[in-house]
Amino acid sequence: MQLEEFLTAAEAIVGANNVSRDPTTGAPEGLDGSRSYGDPFPLSRPHKPGPAIRPETVDQVRDLVHCANKLKVPMWTVSRGKNLGYGGSAPVLDDSIILDLHRMNKIIEINEEYAYAIVEPGVTFIDLYEEIKRRKLNLWLSVPAIGWGSVVGNTLERGIGYTPEAAHYKYQCGMEVVLPDGDLLRTGMGVVEDSKVWPLYSGGFGPGLDGIFFQSNYGIVTKIGIHMSPAPEAYTRIIVEVPEEPDFAPLVGAMTDLMRRRIVANPPQLFDRMTLIIGAARMDPEVAKALGEYAWRAGFALYGPPEAQAGLLNTVKRRFEQVKGAKLTSETFNAAPGEYLRSENITPDFLPQNGVPGIDHALAFSSKEDGLWHNCYSPVLPPSGRELYEWYVRAKKITADHDLNFVADFHVFDRYVISINLIMFHPPAKARLYDVQYALMDDSKKLGYLEYRTHISFMEATAVNQTFNNNAFGRFTTMLKDTIDPNGILSPGKQGIWNSTAKSERLGLGEK
Ligand SMILES: Cc1cc2nc3c(=O)[nH]c(=O)nc-3n(C[C@H](O)[C@H](O)[C@H](O)COP(=O)(O)OP(=O)(O)OC[C@H]3O[C@@H](n4cnc5c(N)ncnc54)[C@H](O)[C@@H]3O)c2cc1C
Questions:
Q1: Residue nearest atom 4 in ligand 1 by C-alpha distance
Q2: Residues 281 and 239 grouped into a single domain
Q3: Does the CB atom of residue 159 touch ligand 1 within 6 A?
Q4: Which residues form the FAD-binding PCMH-type domain (predicted)?
């Protein structure tokens, strides 16, 4: 009854065309041309999406929140719902309404001089890149490997790109948020009417609130500011390969050292032979054969004036001479004198270090029963390479013991490594995904590590590992949830955060 009343009210707010009572229609196009809501790679637990609602304005979002409170109907927010490998647009709690913000797709501002943009949730990386290109702006945008996702959703998930602004959450500046009671808040300097520094200074006066809206269910983000790189005059892409498995430990140590010294600005990506072969085999079998001669390959780049490139490159070369067996190759692109490089004039890299978004990396996958599926296991490790190697050997064995392949996709930052085991599998193997994921989580716990992000099926089991001081973090997040969202209407169970009253809803969720 309440659901019916809610859907009728929602139709009055957003129009009947923008309510999908049947969640197999209405989503932005995804794998295999599907327009269905939900997880394209569902594991054993369904996480069934309820009907979907697609508002177009902030006022509509606020009206929907008021209705949801009145009728106590839970809504799961997505911006584009392309969270592949982590649950797509599926909710933790079965039958939650999917609040799909893809129609809120305005690029509010792009500022070339200060290199920032302010966007609504429906704006994809491809949209923003195309607009920059159309206006011939001298800006390079950090984009993830697949560009059809939203700047807002990816940033809120602390997603990763490949230019110097790759840690997207660190380059977010200013948010507008609909709170669980329907109020509208701006963070940072956005607290001032018509602020001129909202997208420039990420601090504010008083506590920083932006952090509580990352990976949370405390609000619906309706705008964010994001920083970009001014287009460089020169760009050098570098590949370093090492011949033997254990060689990757000093390779990682060298890369993170160069990052801490600000010689290398973007996070190197590190792949093992398996990842490279899978990636390259889609393109050219001959390339795959050549790649197979090396155990590990790292890719990164230098961005900056031409005078600096040669010096920086020499420094990088000198550092890698200390790594046994390392082979370095590089390629430099220079703009015409007095001009800046355009992203689109750089021939494509394996990953978009030049900031050009695409969807090629999605093409290997299909949500069909005979397709290739995947699930990410993504702990955060220290940067020396020693700990990463120790964890890798253990995690690879655990993965093989479950008759699955470890597919390394490591994102190397100055003081940490996001170490993604990009497990790819055919659907009949999905039962083993639970076992391997739990085994990997248990092992990481012994080593003192936690994931940076996780699939909806494992949010509960990951959150229970936040045990410091008798689960102080969980006690605080629950208290906050109870205080600002007493009816539990926003994304229940997101990152393991629930109201204290939610007992039956979470029953069995953290179990295999
Ligand atoms: C082959 C492959 C490669 C990939 N490569 C990368 C990569 O390089 N880097 C990377 O980061 N990811 C990568 N991904 C994962 C994923 O595809 C991207 O992160 C994608 O951008 C996420 O989808 P989205 O932006 O549409 O977010 P959404 O699905 O819209 O949002 C993700 C989550 O954020 C929250 N959220 C979204 N919008 C809001 C809002 N407005 N208010 C409050 N909460 C909100 C919700 O909990 C939602 O479930 C890859 C996936 C695959 C399959």
A1: 145
A2: yes
A3: yes
A4: 45-231
Give the atom of ligand 1 at the shortest distance from the alpha carbon of 121. 41
- Enclosing domain of residue 293: 234-362
Q: Is 173 found in the same domain as 223? A: yes
**What per-residue confidence (pLDDT) applies to 280?**
53
Assess whether 422 and 446 both reside in one domain: yes
Question: CATH code at 184?
Answer: 3.30.465.10
**Distance of alpha carbon 386 from alpha carbon 380, whole angstroms:** 14
Instruction: Write the CB contacts of 277 (distance below 8 Å, at least 6 apart in sequence).
Output: 288, 291, 292
Cβ-contact 418, 410 below 8 angstroms: yes
Q: Across the 512 residues of the chain, what is the mean pLDDT of every consecutive 10-residue run?
A: 93 98 97 96 88 98 98 98 96 97 98 98 98 98 97 98 98 98 98 97 96 98 98 97 93 98 97 71 57 84 94 97 95 96 90 94 89 94 97 96 93 98 90 93 96 96 96 98 98 98 86 76
Cβ of residue 156 lying under 6 Å from some atom of ligand 1 = yes
CA of residue 180 to ligand 1 center, whole Å? 22
Is any atom of ligand 1 closer than 6 Å to the C-beta of 158? no
CA 81–ligand 1 middle distance (angstroms): 7
What is the C-alpha separation between 311 and 305, in angstroms, rounded? 11
Q: 111 with 219, same domain?
A: yes
Element (H, E) at 58: helix 58-71
CA distance 357 to 364: 16
What is the whole-number distance in angstroms between the Cα of residue 260 and the centre of ligand 1? 28
Length of the chain: 512
Q: Is the CB of 154 under 6 A from ligand 1?
A: yes
> How many whole angstroms from 454 Cα to the centroid of ligand 1?
11
Q: Which atom of ligand 1 sits closest to the CA of residue 87?
A: 49
CATH number of the domain bearing residue 35? 3.30.43.10
In a domain, 299, yes or no: yes
- Among the three residues 230, 253, 288, which one is the final residue of a domain in this structure? 230
Give domain status of residue 57, yes or no: yes
Gap between the Cα atoms of 239 and 159, Å rounded: 23
The verdict on the CB of residue 341 being under 6 Å from ligand 1 is no
